[in-house]
Amino acid sequence: MSYKERQIVSEELTPETPEATEAEPVKQRKNGLYPGISDELAESMKSGWADTTLHGLEPIAQAEHTAARRAALSARFPGERLVVPAGNLKTRSNDTEYAFRPSTEYAYLTGDRTQDGVLVLEPTGAGHDATVYLLPRSDRANGEFWLDGQGELWVGRRSSLGEAEQLLGIPAKDVRELPAALTEATGPVRNVRGHDAGIEAALTDKVTAERDEELRVFLSEARVVKDAFEIAELKKACDATARGFEDVVKVLDKAEATSERYIEGTFFLRARVDGNDIGYGSICAAGAHATTLHWVRNDGAVRAGDLLLLDAGVETDELYTADVTRTLPINGSFTPLQRKIYDAVYEAQEAGIAAVKPGAAFRDFHDAAQRVLAEKLVEWGLLGDLSVEKVLELGLQRRWTLHGTGHMLGMDVHDCAAARTESYVDGILEPGVCLTVEPGLYFQADDLTVPEEYRGIGVRIEDDILVTEDGNRNLSDTLPRRSDEVEAWMARLKG
Ligand SMILES: [Mn+2]
């Protein structure tokens, strides 16, 4: 049962027990469209509401895992106060905001997704006491409930502090008390920067950029090896993503009648229904757009005879994302040249995936895939009479391979980005690491160094690979990759 469902079934009416608050009375709705509230209306809105306190909540599914993650953090920074904010809403315009997504660090350590939340690890003799600071339920007595733009009447019910404690397994306090508490606190402090300006202002005299960076780096490196909960989430994300790709194949005729936006919208629907969101802007690149690595305008024509490069991932409700690319013939069949290029990329990906195993260097799968691509480019006569070794030495294949062959994957699509080089690019793979293997070949429409028929063809194949004890597991292998299997799969879906 999901967190949302559990909230609903366990809801029951209880006698009113308003939560204590020190908030100032709200005099008028912010950005108020309705000035002139009568005393009688204000008085009426204060009372006559049933309480809906939730009882008997079970901890969220990953509570044990978040506790272990906090324990690892605690062990790394003994005797120091550690502050990890979720972040705040970002304004889109006036009083509308972008959809909120908590900072990865906060969600990783708490399992919570509440805006304005802050996790604090308070040093004790033996380790740390964790507290999560949250906005409590809206106060009805002071009008916040209906007069504040973030009052529950407008944005929906929040967990009470007591409910949050039960769900997260972490003691909860009122976040409005935190800035003052942090200002008064003594002793060493570290903060994850970039998420909450108010918290940073309260800590400004107590932290240094260098020490805060060490905290950020630790939390990035801690995520390199995934725990069992995370691996299950990544699999879930890949399965939902596969369903999204199937959805797209089924509506390619509608995309041909409109634009790449139809593909983007179709995948987004799957992401919202089966998960929380897309994990990154979907790349829905038909025809020559496939050669633009981050084509996210998605406003181009979709034409039979061209290829569609679709790079998209569903993010689960617990914020783990897939990152999958398939390059599909829009009419269901590759032309001979499209197939030749596609099969070369497939061969490179196979070589890359085979190099993903415990004890291998992170760079190995990139090198393996690049070698295959260089061999093909030489074989096709695109690099004169240079040898494969010389091409690789000079990196000349990169005119058409363009990017690295993969990256860590997790809550962030480019996960663990703050990890030190020795823990990532120069690191050694171990079981529990999850990464993408995504070689590609891209012949720009205006590339005069390749035969005309190559121009405007872009192919990438990307899968999400988990390092296991004895090799690897392809988490996204429910989607076909081999060219003939892709065609058979499309024929079946297009029916
Ligand atoms: Mn990727």
Structural key phrases:
495 residues, alpha+beta, Creatine Amidinohydrolase, Chain A, domain 1, Creatine Amidinohydrolase, five-stranded mixed β-sheet, three-stranded antiparallel β-sheet, 18 helices, 37% helix, disordered N terminus, binds manganese (II) ion
Topology:
Blueprint: H1 3-9, H2 39-46, H3 63-76, E1 81-85, E2 91-93, E3 96-97, H4 104-110, E4 118-123, E5 128-134, H5 144-147, H6 152-155, H7 161-168, E6 172-174, H8 178-184, E7 189-191, H9 197-203, H10 209-222, H11 228-250, H12 252-257, H13 260-274, E8 277-278, E9 283-286, E10 307-312, E11 314-315, E12 324-329, H14 336-354, H15 362-379, H16 388-394, H17 398-401, E13 434-437, E14 440-443, E15 457-460, E16 463-468, E17 471-474, H18 483-494
Parallel strand pairs: 1-7, 5-6
Antiparallel strand pairs: 1-4, 2-3, 4-5, 8-11, 9-10, 10-12, 13-16, 14-15, 16-17
Helix pairs in contact: 8-9, 11-13, 14-15
The structure holds manganese (II) ion.
The site of manganese (II) ion has 5 residues, from loops.
Short description:
With 495 residues, the protein is α+β, with helices and mostly antiparallel strands.
Shape: globular
Write down the CATH topology of the largest domain. Answer: Creatine Amidinohydrolase
End-to-end separation: 35 Å
Helix content range: 25-40%
How is the biggest beta sheet arranged? 5 strands, mixed
Arithmetic mean pLDDT: 93
Strand residue percentage: 5-15%
Strand order of the largest sheet: 6-5-4-1-7
